[in-house]
Amino acid sequence: MTIKYPDGRYYQGNTDTNQSNTKLHHRDNVIFGGRGMSLEETINDSNVYYRSQDRAVIYKKPTPIRIVKVDYPKRSKATIKEAYFQQASTTDYNGVYRGYYLDFEAKETTNKASFPLKNFHQHQVDHFKRCLAQQGICFTIMRFSSLERYFVTPASLLIDYWQLQETNRKSIPLKVIETQGYEIQAGFHPALDYLKAVDQLIQHSTQTNSKGGKI
Amino acid sequence: MTIKYPDGRYYQGNTDTNQSNTKLHHRDNVIFGGRGMSLEETINDSNVYYRSQDRAVIYKKPTPIRIVKVDYPKRSKATIKEAYFQQASTTDYNGVYRGYYLDFEAKETTNKASFPLKNFHQHQVDHFKRCLAQQGICFTIMRFSSLERYFVTPASLLIDYWQLQETNRKSIPLKVIETQGYEIQAGFHPALDYLKAVDQLIQHSTQTNSKGGKI
């Protein structure tokens, strides 16, 4: 099944979007447990694992859909007969981890030297700004698929480059991401153990936060 | 338009579910700004207001839907032709406020002396337990519609009564909610200014938290 979102992304089928029906996959001889899975599936798998271990409670939000027509057949469940995809106004993932609110978006590129900003949208940048103002831990998970490298990149870096975009460059250099981001180390279980990189981001955020807030 | 969820609740139409198309309503001579609106609309309105004032970033999650068939008409947007409502595995609302992760469910009753537990589901109770273990601020917004009284009730109280349910009573007495919960005071703007009651819950939670965690 191939379904396109309004912004041209492809719908990934029945993954973890707020459902509890995602199964843990078991594979051998993998570097990242998620090899062969889409980035979204890999993260959803990891989130199921984190919940099962009481490490964190993080979900992908369901795709917002505008429902126009529903049938109620007798002795059968309601069937949506006409509906449309809607543009989300937030990022895809959020949840709670060690008392922190986490909020993130996951994207990938086949580029080897930089991450194109066209992967992101204005509403995501705006949402990150609002959540940062509330002391949320905001980031993107960036996958360089040709390199099989993954980074937890602070949302503040995306915001900085987003503002440069009109006058200047349209992507974030890998060298900058290597310096400002936190590389996710390869492992077996869960598929993508991104919380270790998030720990580093939290440590850095709480050290540099000078607003006198809680973090 | 009347649409039933799998659990029998009614779908409220195109409200704030992760969309930015909710308008602020202006009314005169109201006690709670939301009078005449459904509880969900009232909360969504308040959330739009809180975001506009940079007070908090809280959204209702979209209803999870399993998509089976989509049409792609030429020169027109994708139309979902067959889809089904799915049971959510979380609560309806979450977000970030002053560095805290908030997670809640909103329910109402016409009862005058107690709040029936049948308004809640096992998956919501389980989700609250997981979020509390991560030091999230978890609660329900309970509306006693006949009394026009609203409470922010700690999830821990719901969990306690949920466990009593099989052997004992099937509802939480209003007298207990008055003592253990935080009543939302009437105001004009936003429609339901529940964050003031949440402030009290946070203060109480941080005072009584003995786990040595962040809160």
UniProtKB/TrEMBL annotation, chains A, B:
Binding site for Mg(2+): 90, 92, 105, 124
Gene3D superfamilies recorded: 3.40.1350.10
Composition skew (Polar residues), residue ranges: 12-22
Top EC category: hydrolase
Pfam families per the UniProt record, alphabetical: RecU
Gene Ontology MF: a single term: magnesium ion binding
Region (Disordered): 1-22
CDD domains registered for this protein in UniProt: RecU-like (cd22354)
Cell compartment(s), UniProt: Cytoplasm
Catalytic activity: Endonucleolytic cleavage at a junction such as a reciprocal single-stranded crossover between two homologous DNA duplexes (Holliday junction)
Primary location class: cytoplasm
Required co-factors: Mg(2+)
Keyword hit for Signal: no
GO cellular component, one term: cytoplasm
EC number, as in UniProt: 3.1.21.10
InterPro entries the UniProt entry points to: Resolv_RecU (IPR004612), Restrct_endonuc-II-like (IPR011335), tRNA_endonuc-like_dom_sf (IPR011856)
GO BP: chromosome segregation; DNA recombination; DNA repair
Alphabetical UniProt keywords: Cytoplasm, DNA damage, DNA recombination, DNA repair, Endonuclease, Hydrolase, Magnesium, Metal-binding, Nuclease
Residues the record marks as site: Transition state stabilizer: 107
Note accompanying the cofactor annotation: Binds 1 Mg(2+) ion per subunit.
Family: Belongs to the RecU family.
Function: Endonuclease that resolves Holliday junction intermediates in genetic recombination. Cleaves mobile four-strand junctions by introducing symmetrical nicks in paired strands. Promotes annealing of linear ssDNA with homologous dsDNA. Required for DNA repair, homologous recombination and chromosome segregation.
Protein name: Holliday junction resolvase RecU
Species per Swiss-Prot/TrEMBL record: Lapidilactobacillus dextrinicus DSM 20335
Originating gene: recU
